Amino acid sequence: MATRVRGTLFTLGAGALLQRLAQLLSMLCIARTLGTAATGVYALGMAAGTLLAVLAGAGIRNFVARQIVREPATAGDWVRSAVRARLLLGLALLAPFALATTIASARPLFWCLCGLQVVPLALDLKGLLDALARTRREVLIETTASLLQFAATAAWMVAGGGDLATLAAIALGARGLYAAAAVATLRRLPRHGQGPSLRTLARRCAALSLGQTANELATTTDVLLVGWFGGDGTAGLYAVAQRIAGAASQPSALLARLLLPHFHRAATAGDPARMTRTALRACAFAVLPLCAGGMVTAEPLCALFGNGFAAAAWPLRLCLIAVALQHLGWQCSHALFGLLRERAYVLTLGLPALLHGLGIAALVPLAGATGAAASAVVAQAAYWVMTWVALRRHLRLRLRRTLQQPLQVAAITAAVTATVAWACEPAGLPGQLVAGGLAFLIGLWRCELRGRSHRFGAGLVEASGFHGG
Question: What is the C-alpha to C-alpha distance for residues 251 and 290, in angstroms, rounded to an integer?
Fold first, then answer.
């Protein structure tokens, strides 16, 4: 079983590397072609499509993933019911959105194409196939779609670029390819009945959906609020900072995805406290050193997107702090959810999301993209503290012992990166990234993997009792 965990993690890592590289290169092409303001408009359009998808499906995915782990015999029926519910709700939201943008927008085609993304996004199988131990297929589908989107975006740039509707059509086409492959996957899942109805799902997910919707809106559509209060240029700077921070946190996001089914199972077949300690330590090793190195290299990273994006350096530094706090909070949230502490789970998701929205409204007019990133730090710090306090009521955990070595590796990574920047200026950004990466890998080996690499994944399976991967 440990071998299976290692294989799944390798698949996730290889796929995520290609996906994030394709996404960063796509954004690089877009930003260098359009500039800050038009890039902001594009980011707002993509965020609008994501907003519709979040409203259509928030709360359903995690609930169904937990049910799959607990009731594996009816897993296929649960997955199909979840997709059907998200698709119906998405179509119901799409109609008024398309009508409103057609009447009120100066770019109706662009906005309608962005909104149409709610249809293929309803077929996003992340989390669901993970609970079925079919992660590798989902990664293959997502990676193929990301690479094709980058290829089409690069062709758009070479052809002259400038048309936002074409960019939206490219994104929609990539998601459509994913959706077609997802449909083929759904047809192969075993059938044992019709699965729960839309009404049943809505009733059972009602409380979860409130907190989940608030949290996902805060993390996926904050660009809309930034654009509303700060304008297209501010939204463009913030979107680039977010994209880079997202790339730095990708290893931790992969771990969160791998760990979620284990959290669902640990409450009934494992040791929840050990599972949480394992998850927090793994997450800290994955996110803290990379975010620390990214803070040192923030200015040259942002400059890659064009001269106008150099101002995104401080927003990027703050976004990196925010995502580190967010990913640590995720592990505590997942532990609460697995323990069926749904009230605490909902409250710890919903209140920080509200704080984030209020912070954007207050700080963006004063400090632009930096204010938006600062509001994210405050909200994610509140999220991390709230989830930790809520979890300590149910499990005995020691935070200092869990995070001590990851913090040391993060400090070393940042120090090495800064030293190369100061002492070896001709090496530039590539030299800083290579030096920081080597420092991180050496620190990870000495603190975590040395003498134990052959058992990598075994402790996770023992703590959770989940043998699916």
Answer: 9
